[in-house]
Write a structure and sequence with these properties.
The chain is of the alpha+beta class. It folds into four domains: about 5-70, no CATH class; about 80-155, no CATH class; about 185-255, 2-Layer Sandwich (GMP Synthetase, Chain A, domain 3); about 260-355, no CATH class. The chain has eight helices and 14 strands. The strands form four sheets. A six-stranded antiparallel beta sheet has the order 7-3-4-6-1-8, with no helix packed on it. Strands 9-10-11 form a three-stranded mixed beta sheet, with helices on one face. It has a three-stranded mixed beta sheet with strand order 13-12-14, with helices on one face. A hairpin with a 4-residue loop joins strand 3 (about 100-105) and strand 4. Helix 1 packs across helix 2 and helix 3 runs parallel beside helix 4 (about 170-185).
Length: about 350
Amino acid sequence: MFETETQEKIQKRMASTAAGEINTDEGSMFYLATAPMSVELLTAYSQLEQVLKLGFAQSSSGEYLDMRANEHGVYRKEQSKAEGVVRVEGSVGTEIPEGTLFATSDGRTYESVGEAVIEVTYADVKIVATESGTAYNTTANAVVEMPVPVAGVTAIRNPLPISKGANTESDASLLERLLDHVRRPATSGNVYQYEQWAESITGIGGAKVMPLWAGAGTVKVVLINELREPADSVMVDEVKTYIESVRPIGAFVTYEAAEGVSINIEATVKLSQNAILETVEASFIQKLSDYLRGEVAFKMDSQQNPVQVSMAKIGSMLVTTEGVEDYSELLLNGGTDSVVLTDLQVPVKGVIQIYEQS
């Protein structure tokens, strides 16, 4: 609206309103007095343009997007800390004080919640990550160290995965949920409402709802995490607990994680001069991950079928990766066809093997 404004235009408009006997030529007292004012007015016009954009959800961001979403009862999901249990083995009677630090081999740290004492041969100790975020979610047997050793402890491991760590929801994700809320009205336990209930839980990145999947009165809710991969059992239980507390009675609802389908890729590439194979492979893996999460996982095509993992797109990503001049012998899950997914499946990066052409 104000993008055509310039300092010169503003100053000319001010000069046009001056009394006739006042000299407004360049270098005059009037001109020198209004020049700084025209600069400030130009800044104000620029800010007004930004204010106008912040008033609309699709061009807003940060706290202003929060305000627009909150008007519709949609709230940004906050970051959370990963939590779980470690099994501490050692001498009987050994005490594990509250706040004892545990760590993975790559340096992610967790602290104990409450005190524990080793009885018989071990004690299960509840732990929480020292910082928030998905980076602190781990697989089983990943927490194996104590940065500050405790006398009497001989071994550490987490029997089950550490989970529930989540990042603060991004603007893009919040906007998507807001637009879904506005454009797809949720009423009386319809499909849209089940989706919105599930996706309101921290750590959940998407939900697919299948009504009547096993006959009248049945509903299935399939879940992925914010990395667009199958949700873990803790998240599934959390979604179940919440939806069961708010949904209408009368339906039999099944909750489960999506099935992960490994995407394995093998190819031979011709590298450009000075390119390094390891760097090329890392760049391609990042592009692949972005593609699987952003364009495939829980996405539907124009025929309302799950988007397939396209062999053509994989090839295009590979040949456009910096450092690659050409490729050959590209295999996707051992073949040359695209990978077709079902409604219950999401792609997960598997084994990626890139070889240099000899």
